[in-house]
Amino acid sequence: MPKVRTSRNRIRQPPEGWELIEPTIEELDAKMREAETESHEGKRRTEALWPIFKIHHQRSRYIYDLFYKRKAISRELYDYCIKNRIADAALIAKWKKQGYENLCCLRCIQARDTNFGTNCICRVPRDKLEEGRNVVECVHCGCRGCSG
């Protein structure tokens, strides 16, 4: 029998310090709504999703930087953001590992999404790519190189 989702799974009241990050989160949410309603005319199917991936990355990176780098928010507020899906817990977990500090999205490291069972082209360091190539863009999220 499937698990029934109740309102107890989410924390209702934001913890102390929420008022400091709320304007930025609201601004990113407004950008996300705008990106979702943007016209897809003249774009490839995957290109329509690139702005959404970018904003999702920005929102998660903002929470990650506040908690791990600057230590500006509490553990309670960080957990609130993770539990309410303001930030992506899986992406943040990858950022904590060596070699994945600048990862753009989780789809770029999933081998099943590529033709030859390897990582995305954006995960290849720029100095290892052929010099004759023009700009390299990820098919999944539009990243131009997140490996460093």
UniProtKB/TrEMBL annotation:
<dbReference type="InterPro" id="IPR018230">
    <property type="entry name" value="BUD31/G10-rel_CS"/>
</dbReference>
<protein>
    <recommendedName>
        <fullName>Protein BUD31 homolog</fullName>
    </recommendedName>
</protein>
<dbReference type="GO" id="GO:0005681">
    <property type="term" value="C:spliceosomal complex"/>
</dbReference>
<dbReference type="GO" id="GO:0000398">
    <property type="term" value="P:mRNA splicing, via spliceosome"/>
</dbReference>
<keyword id="KW-0539">Nucleus</keyword>
<dbReference type="InterPro" id="IPR001748">
    <property type="entry name" value="BUD31"/>
</dbReference>
<dbReference type="Pfam" id="PF01125">
    <property type="entry name" value="BUD31"/>
</dbReference>
<comment type="similarity">
    <text>Belongs to the BUD31 (G10) family.</text>
</comment>
